[in-house]
Give the backbone structure.
Amino acid sequence: MSNDNRSFDIRNPRRRNTLEEDEQYLRQHFEHTLNERVKRRQQAPVHAAIPSQWFAAATRECRDLYVDGHYYGAICLTQAVAEGISKFLTAQNQLRDPGRHNSRNAMLRKRGFITTSAYKAFKVVEGNDRNDYHHLNSTIETDRVKLEIRASECLRALFEIQVEVFAFSIGEGGTMVVAHPQYWPIVNRKYLAAHVDFT
């Protein structure tokens, strides 16, 4: 449908916006919220390198959602990524998955695959509100200030988990030396496949 033939639809009034109008709106919105976004970005930790696995891109989106002020999305996605990492650790260490997130993390701690610190960070991410966010229960938090605090808390806890389980150091010649090689995919029997973010 060409721009000239667009009909007005009360259910979607912006359908009549031109590309220039939408661009102007988005630019103004971005500039209006830029200071707050910058503050949140400064507070949002991201582990510099994680294994190039299915959860890698989603991990970065946790931070991006938080920075952009999309707290519901940041909380839900951070909880989902943490659960995915928990399942990944269980599979990579060839353990039988007990099925429940808390039981899985308790098993990982008991078997020595995560420390008590990482176990506590998993608990922080899940909180006592996971079902409220994932099923949008009527008891879900709606206060924006509290949502921002919760999203930040989740993001920081996810960072703590990743710093531990995907720990690395820089070796000779700038090579990456990983603490737990079993978590990192190997390419051509020589190179680690890593998702790197120094931004």
Notes: The mean pLDDT is 91. The CA atoms of residues 87 and 99 lie 9 Å apart. The helical segments are 19-43, 56-67, 71-92, 101-110, 116-126, 130-134, 144-165. The radius of gyration is 21 Å.
